[in-house]
Design goal:
Largest sheet: 8 strands, parallel
Number of helices: 7
CATH architecture: Alpha-Beta Barrel
Helix content: 25-40%
Radius of gyration: 16 Å
Strand content: 15-25%
Number of domains: 1
CATH class: Alpha Beta
Order of helices and strands: EHEHEHEHEEHEHEH
Length: about 220
């Protein structure tokens, strides 16, 4: 299973060094949480295309960048993130009017596309779009709400997606990947791996004051089956 660091817990005055350390530790996928101060419940603003463009210039073309758009106007602004250098745009099913139209537009730009859903959103809202998606992101916390713990009850949702994707593959369809995000740390990384998750987003479990990114990454890797 791939580990994708989220930079939200980083000291942004040291962001370049944090990115360098993540790459030196062997990580090849960076997860970018974009919040506009409107859509998430705590009204947090994080960063936008200008910062993402700087990140791309810092890390070069080989590292994979996804942007998780927790914003109200993804349908109008997604191209800004593509132009900033992301490889994949992930948008919330709850935040757009026409998912199919947005999926088509992003794909026609040559960019990979994913859909993310909140813990209380049924997977049935996303499954009709699976064959057109490169990735589905299952949130295991409520986006933007601080101090939350990992929600193990999302297991059933992950397993439903896994079953639908396996069926899709058996019919010659796309091998859509499953990502999980929210409260993932060394003590539960093995659990989500056993569910069939392909990519885990890890924030404070990697980027914290208790150890270097490399040390924390190795601790997480040791817990994988």
């Amino acid at each position: 299973m791939l580990i994708a660091p989220s930079i939200l817990t980083a000291d942004f005055t040291q962001l370049g060094s944090v990115l360098d350390d993540a790459l030196k530790a062997g990580m090849s996928w960076i997860h970018l949480d974009v919040m506009d101060g409107n859509w998430v419940v705590n009204k947090t603003i994080t960063f936008g295309p200008a910062v993402i463009k700087s990140i791309r210039e810092r890390i070069g073309p080989e590292v994979y960048l996804d942007c998780h758009l927790m914003i109200t106007n993804a349908e109008e602004t997604w191209m800004q993130y593509v132009e900033a250098g992301v490889d994949m745009v992930i948008f919330h099913i709850e935040a757009v009017d026409s998912p199919k139209t947005l999926i088509r537009a992003i794909r026609e730009s040559g960019t990979a596309v994913g859909i993310v859903l909140n813990p209380d959103t049924s997977e049935e809202e996303v499954i009709p779009h699976l064959e057109d998606l490169d990735l589905v992101l299952v949130m295991s916390v409520v986006p933007g709400k601080g101090g939350q713990s990992f929600m193990p009850e999302v297991k059933d949702k992950v397993l439903r997606f896994k079953s639908a994707i396996d069926e899709q593959i058996s019919k010659g369809g796309k091998s859509t990947r499953i990502m999980i995000d929210g409260g993932i740390k060394s003590h539960n990384i093995g659990l989500v791996s056993s569910w069939g998750v392909d990519i885990s987003v890890v924030g404070s479990g990697l980027i914290n004051s208790k150890g270097t990114i490399s040390e924390n990454y190795q601790k997480i890797i040791r817990e994988l089956p």
